[in-house]
Design the sequence.
């Protein structure tokens, strides 16, 4: 019986620990790179994993397929996800018509969609262009947020510094963001993330940046959050939530768009920086890798 993509990936996850080392490597690659696996030939996939094509044939057989193409087919079909916006919303209607738990999931999913779409709609290209110009021309881009918003600022600075090495997360340790801005100057910029109730520390750092004539980019749920805060660029985001805390899905997609523009502006230099970073992490054992299969010595 043909497996759906979700059934196949779940079967791979459940069986990966019981597979021989070579098949384990192949299974992990498929789970980590489903898009590439759906597009590449068997030889290209084998080369990327570092195994022989026969390993992939054996894995296909292990998962119940007569040929490699059968194993790859669900992943190839799933690439239609790139056209998700053209698909119907029948899945949401099906959830709404289900039991109480399914109906609740439909409600949360619909809210998340609305939050994301509104935040993207408010992301005017002229504002984006201005923000990217500020970031790429600055010597240092300080990124600050507190509490729940801190996770967003950490991710943005962690990924973004590959495109712009001057991105710095503040506060760095246990101090305040203002402490890390003491040596800042107009050649630097500040990116601040805050939603209601607004962080006093974040507002203080924005006011300090204004006094130092630093360009200021703000991601917030309002264009006006406090006196003395006059950003050069504001990205208003929706934070409507069906629970007791703000929904950060809108802020996250805005940051993802900004990251995309930063990497596009960084070009080959940014791509090389990412490759070098990944290789460095792999060389130091930062990422878990399945055991290499023993090599057979030929006499």
Sequence:
């Amino acid at each position: 019986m043909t497996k759906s993509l979700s059934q196949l990936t779940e079967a791979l996850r459940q069986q990966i620990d019981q597979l021989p080392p070579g098949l384990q490597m192949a299974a992990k690659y498929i789970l980590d790179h489903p898009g590439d696996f759906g597009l590449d030939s068997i030889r290209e996939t084998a080369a990327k994993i570092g195994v022989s094509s026969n390993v992939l044939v054996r894995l296909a057989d292990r998962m119940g397929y007569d040929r490699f193409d059968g194993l790859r087919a669900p992943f190839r079909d799933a690439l239609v996800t790139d056209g998700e916006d053209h698909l119907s919303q029948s899945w949401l209607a099906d959830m709404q018509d289900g039991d109480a738990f399914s109906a609740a999931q439909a409600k949360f999913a619909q809210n998340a969609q609305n939050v994301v779409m509104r935040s993207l709609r408010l992301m005017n290209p002229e504002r984006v262009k201005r923000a990217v110009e500020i970031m790429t021309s600055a010597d240092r881009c300080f990124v600050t947020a507190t509490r729940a918003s801190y996770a967003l600022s950490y991710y943005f600075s962690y990924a973004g510094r590959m495109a712009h090495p001057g991105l710095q997360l503040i506060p760095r340790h246990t101090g305040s963001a203002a402490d890390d801005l003491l040596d800042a100057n107009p050649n630097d910029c500040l990116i601040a993330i805050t939603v209601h109730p607004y962080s006093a520390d974040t507002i203080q750092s924005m006011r300090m940046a204004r006094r130092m004539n630093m360009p200021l980019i703000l991601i917030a749920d309002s264009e006006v959050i406090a006196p003395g805060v006059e950003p050069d660029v504001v990205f208003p985001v929706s934070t409507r939530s069906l629970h007791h805390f703000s929904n950060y899905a809108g802020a996250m997609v805005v940051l993802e768009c900004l990251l995309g523009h930063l990497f596009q502006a960084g070009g080959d230099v940014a791509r090389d920086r990412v490759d070098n970073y990944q290789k460095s992490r792999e060389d130091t054992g930062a990422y878990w890798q399945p055991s290499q299969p023993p090599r057979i010595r030929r006499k």
User: Anything to note?
Assistant: The longest strand covers residues 189-194.
